[in-house]
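The data are quoted verbatim here:
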Amino acid sequence: MTFNMGGFFTDDSWTPSTIIQQDPTLPVSASLKKVESAKTSNKTDTKGESLSSLIQDALSPYKKANIEEINQRTSFTVTAGYDDQGNPNFKDANGELIPGIYTDIPNDVYHSLPAISSSMIKKFLISPAHYYRAYVDPVNRHRTSKALERTFDAGTYAHELILEPQGFYDHYYRELSQAENPELLSTLEELKSLCKDNNLKVSGTKQVLIDRLLEADPTFGNRIFDVVKKQNDEKNAGKKGIDPVVWDDAHRSCHAVRKNEWADKLLSDGIAELSVIARCPETGRMLKVRFDWLSYNGVPVDVKTSRTVNPQKFIYQFADLKYDVQAYMYSFVGRLAGIPIPRCTFPFVSVEYNEADICEVFEMSDEDFRIAGTNYHRAINELVDCIENDDWYGYTRGTASTIITLPKRGRV
C-alpha cells in the first residue's frame, strides 16, 4: 500500500520528547479510507513449555520471517529475534535489552522482557494500586469459567488464522463433536443397552462397558463416540486439539475479516507480530510494543475480537479498555525505533462472532489521539515516579476526604 505519511510524523524536526507540543496545524495525512491499495533459557513457563522449545518453534521454517525480503520492502530495519544458534539478538552480552525492531520473538518471551508495555500503562491509568497488584506484588484471584476460557481461546486462534495462518493446520486439529455425531453412542445408558442387546454384562463404569464391548467385537468401536474420538486424537498426535465450537468461531472470525474489503486490504502486504524495543526519551526506561500487523509502509493495524462491533456500543469498550492509549504508545514507540507511522493513524480491525459474524474497522479522531498522547505521557512519568519512590496510592492520595456529588439517578 502507498500512504501519505503526513507532516506530523515525518517532519525532520520531529523529536519524541516534544511530540505533544507539535503544532496542531501541521497537515494531516490522507485518510486511510481514501487510500487505494498499490498493486534462551530452559526455564519452564506456567503452561509447561520450556522457553527453548518456544524459541525453536519460532525458528521453524514455516514461521521464520524472511528478513532480507522484509528489509528490501521497508524504509526501516528489521532484525531477526534470534541468530542461527538460537541466541537472542535483542539482548547484549550482559543480558540488557537492545533497542530495535524484531521478528520471531515468541509471545511468552516478549511478555517476559523487562520493559514497560502498553498493558502496564493501561493498568496504571486505573490507579497505581492496580499496577502494584498486577506487576509488583501479584495476587492470583483469577477464576475463569469454561465459557470465558472458550472466548479467550477463540480470540487467540482467530488472531493466528488472520495474521499468521501458515502452519496453522500443522499445529492444530479440530476435535470431534458429539453434537455433530448423534449416531455415535455416548451415554452410559446407551452403552448398557448395546451390551444387553449382545448378551454382555451391563455392570461397571462407562470405560468398563466400552472395554467389554471392544473385547467382544472390536467393530463396536465404530459405533462408540469415545472410541472414534480417541482414534481421531491418535491420528493427530503431535498437534493440539481445539474444541469444535472454538475452532468454528475462530474460522468464522477469520472469514468475516477477509470478507471485509477494507480490513483485508489493511491486513495485506505487511508483517505480523513485530516486537519493538526502544528507550523512553523522557524517563530513560525501556519500552516495548508488539504490533499485530505493520504494513511495509509503516501503517499499524490491531485485530480485536469483541462481543459486539456495533459502533455505538464498541466505543464504550474502546474507552474502558484504553485502546486509545495503546494506539498512541504503539505509534510513539514505533517512531522511536524508526518506523514512519503516519499521524493519528491506527486502524482497529474488530470482529464479533457470537451472535453474528461481522467485521468493522475503527479509527480514532485526531482529537482523541492527542488526548491519548497527553494521558500516556502523564502516566509514564507518574509510573516511574511511583517505581522510584515505591509509592502505590489508590484513586487519590488519601490525605483528605473526597467531596462527591451524586448523579441525578442517585438523588430523590
